[in-house]
């Protein structure tokens, strides 16, 4: 057993005795008291400013969506690097990463029986094309993996439609991830997915999908909840539903891209790092404003804010705009690879990738003793309702760092509407609220500043 763990168990044992409240308060006083004034300055300055919102609007209006491999992503990265230089951030650079390059091309879906209707659709990221004339086939609707298995002998030559109602993202997205594999194994010629969302206004939702090496690659596209339900009702009435699906998607060779990195160098221990950010790539629809333009700009502006206020912590605060979260995760992996030698000096990794709404706190992943400290830092955010530190926590882009032992936090927000817009043409600026975004900046800036300035680094597992 390692020493820190021993210390934790002693602390836990003590907390179980008759003096826990006093002990907890006594431990809490130092951090909260020491950093209250700085935290209040950060929060006041963040809330007085809608610069983050304006900057995100400019980014998303200028460049639009930013799929890995696209020219719009690379132009956005060039612009961000320029802006960061102008902001006066330090060590501004792009760190090379090779990314997958999938191109949607022209695509459509049309119900041809029992009556003609053009179906709003989006091919799923990574899907193969149909033959040039499309695939026209009868639709078989299933509501679960079990139903597909039970009726597998009916699937041959058909288009399988997964009409699976929303439960939560993690549960329902399995059908997007593995639907094409399961449908192909049953002999289907293509697959359709009811969009993964709790709420729909006829918008299809794209997202990543997978193939398996031992299974034929069939085209896979999302249709709307409304159309999936309608086709279900038609089939239930005994009607034959026929759809023509036409897709020209292609996967090109990997393309060069970059993680964008900038810093506020630490005053005493510049080689120790608090890293924060989000992913700069998006799907090729909407503006990638919620997912995740807002997260990256909030992190970027959090560092700008500290710089403007003259709050230079002991350790370096490093903002990273990871690339390729949506369809590969190469940015998160590439960052770990490039910074392997200094992973031991990463004190905290922070990510925002749950949309930009009212912040509630952070989800934490790491040791019990680090959790206790981060929870104390959280109390500095109670005045804006963003102080709740829960477990577990983390994020896709900081996952590689966390698996290497770095404590991690993911910004938690009031995200009940997030998946309405997620991966759709409706993920646009107007869905964000400037004051909520300013609160996200405040939450990230306070957490980054205090953890970067504490006398001791956060204890690891
Ligand atoms: Zn995202």
What's the helix and strand layout?
Elements lengths: L2 H13 L4 H28 L3 H13 L7 H17 L2 E14 L3 E7 L3 E3 L1 E3 L11 E8 L2 H6 L8 E4 L6 H4 L1 H12 L4 E5 L25 E4 L1 H12 L5 E6 L2 E15 L4 E11 L9 H20 L6 E8 L7 H9 L7 E6 L7 E7 L2 H11 L9 E3 L8 H5 L4 E6 L4 H4 L12 H20 L8
Bound molecules: zinc ion.
Zinc ion binds next to helix 9.
Average pLDDT across residues?
94
Note the main sheet: 8 strands, mixed
Measure the end-to-end span.
11 Å
Order of helices and strands: HHHHEEEEEHEHHEEHEEEHEHEEHEHEHH
Q: Structural class per helix/strand content?
A: alpha/beta
Your description of this structure?
With 461 residues, this protein is α/β, with parallel strands linked by helices. It is 38% helix and 24% strand. It has an 8-stranded mixed β-sheet. An 8-stranded mixed β-sheet has the order 3-2-9-5-6-7-8-4, with helices on both faces. Strand 5, helix 5 and strand 6 form a beta-alpha-beta unit. The longest helix has 28 residues. The radius of gyration is 24 Å and the shape is elongated. 53% of the residues are buried. The N terminus is likely disordered.
């Amino acid at each position: 057993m390692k020493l820190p763990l021993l210390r934790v168990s002693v602390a836990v044992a003590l907390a179980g005795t008759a003096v826990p409240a006093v002990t907890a308060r006594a431990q809490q006083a130092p951090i909260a008291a020491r950093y209250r004034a700085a935290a209040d300055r950060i929060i006041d300055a963040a809330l007085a400013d809608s610069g983050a919102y304006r900057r995100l609007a400019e980014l998303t209006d200028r460049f639009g969506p930013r799929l890995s491999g696209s020219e719009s992503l690379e132009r956005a990265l060039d612009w961000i690097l320029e802006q960061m230089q102008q902001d006066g951030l330090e060590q501004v650079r792009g760190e090379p990463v090779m990314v997958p390059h999938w191109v949607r091309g022209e695509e459509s879906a049309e119900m041809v029986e029992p009556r003609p209707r053009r179906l709003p659709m989006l091919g799923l990221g990574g899907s193969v094309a149909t033959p040039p004339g499309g695939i026209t086939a009868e639709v078989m609707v299933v509501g679960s993996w079990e139903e597909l298995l039970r009726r597998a002998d009916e699937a041959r030559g058909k288009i399988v439609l997964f009409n699976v109602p929303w439960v939560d993202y993690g549960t329902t997205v399995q059908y997007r991830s593995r639907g094409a594999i399961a449908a192909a194994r049953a002999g289907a010629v293509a697959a359709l997915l009811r969009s993964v969302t709790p709420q729909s206004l006829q918008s299809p939702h794209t997202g990543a999908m997978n193939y398996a090496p031992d299974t034929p690659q069939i085209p896979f596209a999302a249709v709307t909840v409304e159309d999936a339900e309608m086709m279900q009702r038609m089939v239930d009435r005994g009607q034959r539903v026929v759809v023509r699906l036409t897709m020209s998607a292609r996967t090109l060779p990997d393309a060069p891209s970059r993680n964008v990195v900038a810093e506020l160098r630490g005053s005493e221990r510049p080689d120790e790092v608090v890293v924060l950010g989000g992913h700069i790539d998006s799907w090729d629809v909407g503006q990638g404003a919620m997912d995740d333009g807002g997260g990256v700009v909030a992190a970027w502006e959090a560092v700008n804010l500290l710089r403007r206020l003259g709050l230079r912590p002991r350790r370096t605060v490093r903002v990273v705009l990871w690339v390729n979260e949506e369809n590969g995760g190469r940015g998160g992996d590439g960052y770990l690879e490039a910074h392997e030698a200094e992973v031991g000096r990463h004190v905290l990794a922070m990510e925002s990738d749950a949309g930009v709404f009212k912040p509630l706190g952070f989800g934490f992943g790491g040791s019990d003793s680090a959790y206790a400290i981060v929870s104390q830092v959280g109390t500095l955010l109670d005045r804006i309702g963003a102080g709740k530190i829960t477990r577990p926590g983390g994020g896709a882009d900081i996952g590689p760092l966390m698996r290497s032992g770095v404590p991690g936090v993911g910004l938690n927000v009031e995200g009940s509407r997030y998946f309405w817009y997620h991966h759709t043409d409706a993920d646009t600026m107007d869905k964000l609220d400037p004051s909520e975004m300013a609160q996200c900046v405040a939450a990230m800036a306070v957490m980054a500043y205090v953890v970067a300035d504490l006398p001791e680094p956060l204890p690891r597992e």
